[in-house]
Amino acid sequence: MSSRTSRVDAAGSVVPPQDTYLGMPPFPTAAKHQLRNSQQRSNLTHATRTIRGKRNALVADKDDWEQLRSAGAAIKDEVLTHLDEYLLQFEEAATAAGATVHWAPDASAANRIVGEIAVEAGVSDVVKAKSMATEEIGLVEALAAADVNAYETDLAALIVQLSADVPSHIVVPAIHRNRAEIREIFATNMGTFGEPAPADLDDDPTHLAAAARHHLRQKFLAAEMAVTGANFAVAESGSLLLVESEGNGRMCVTMPKTLVSVVGIEKLVPTWRDVEVYLQLLARSATGEPMNPYTSVWTGAHADDGPTDVHIVLLDNNRTDILADEVGRQTLRCIRCAACLNVCPVYERAGGHSYGSVYPGPIGAILSPQLRGLHDDVDRELPYASSLCGACFEACPMEINIPRVLVQLRADVIDEEPALKPSAERAAMSVAAAGFSHRTLFDIGEKAAGFAHRLIRNERGITSVPGFSGWFSTRDIATPPAESFSSWWARTGGADDE
Ligand code: SF4
């Protein structure tokens, strides 16, 4: 059995597994392929339902949940409005506490900075805590190109790395795997990365966890440098916070001499009082726990406590462009809890690998096209990877109106494609736009609708129109009423005439 997940290329052919999203096909093609993977669908359904159930029970018990959501959104909006000031305040406080702050305008700058720190520290191996920012910039691959091995220490991220796979969920990167698959991955590949799995390893979760602990312990003891992300950066003290469930992050931020944290600039919060709000929102939304098991905080460097060489890389990578967009900027409130993934019917069926990005699901459908631009079909298709049911908006602890941003991005896709091939749908939309803009044309349209009413005899309404087979394959149009609204209004003045 292969331990890696095959994918499908832009032409629809199955291709071998790979450890990068590059070259992955747009959502419709990828999802079609992933939907055939019934084992993955079953793994995902089980996992997302379990997390969702726990989250719902905790939220139902929290009387001030809606107030917390609003407070979380308001704090982030305040930060985003004054981001320049908070960033400078954070840099000043972190520097005064002994950290070195770097500014990375894009992914390649961030990778270069981390690579140079590794070279300067003279290390060839680093341990790494799970971090979406480092996934976003492809740090592990960039370090490998500089002959530095970065070892994932989060259990799910380790499973992904050992199987040369890519993450499929923000919080649980190997959510698409079941324990039989994980046993196979450990038994086959652990030895090539270090301490091998026990020869008699079975798929008992306790034994799998013990194998991972033993394997990782050797990495922690040997590592002289760690790379992490951070969930929050506190402007008033220059501190970073990392929340996690396994303790591997705690090991990363305390054991090695050199610590580098790559942090998106939107992770700022003004004060420690604000952190209280997010710690209540994040754990409940992410894993359905009242409080996450490990919360690590570090402020600068200290000679006799933890790492002595502490670096913070503040990552922009198009975030300031998102900030400039009135509708899209709410995306930057995201705290990467993945609650939107766990409620999304599209994600549950299509799986995380269909989104062609480290950010899958509803948040990925709005974040990836904004971070990367609408330059290719992968990003142009993402805003359509949604039924707009609104479940993500309801679940989001940061009140991000994902459907609203999706609709805006769909409009951007259309606006950015003026040279689009003409299509029947495009022509019909132009006629509709003209009809709604001119009274005479509108009246003609209403008369035509009345005429259509007399022609259409079946109960389903209009079920096909030549040239629109694609559109009508999933939609019908109700039979137009016999009398138009204008005519009814003129006749009754709005009074009910039933
Ligand atoms: S968009 Fe909202 S629900 Fe989704 S990951 Fe971000 S904060 Fe969580």
From TrEMBL:
Pfam families: Fer4_8, LUD_dom. GO terms for biological process: lactate metabolic process. GO terms for molecular function: 4 iron, 4 sulfur cluster binding; metal ion binding. InterPro entries: 4Fe4S_Fe-S-bd, 4Fe4S_Fe_S_CS, FTHF_cligase-like_sf, Helical_ferredxn, LUD_dom, LutB/LldF, NagB/RpiA_transferase-like. Keywords: 4Fe-4S, Electron transport, Iron, Iron-sulfur, Metal-binding, Repeat, Transport. Residues 89-314 form the LUD domain. Residues 1-45 are annotated as: Disordered. PROSITE patterns: 4FE4S_FER_1. SUPFAM superfamilies: 4Fe-4S ferredoxins, NagB/RpiA/CoA transferase-like. The keyword Repeat applies. Residues 36-45 have a biased composition (Polar residues). Residues 332-400 form the 4Fe-4S ferredoxin-type domain. NCBIfam families: LutB/LldF family L-lactate oxidation iron-sulfur protein. This is Iron-sulfur cluster-binding protein. It comes from Gordonia jinhuaensis.
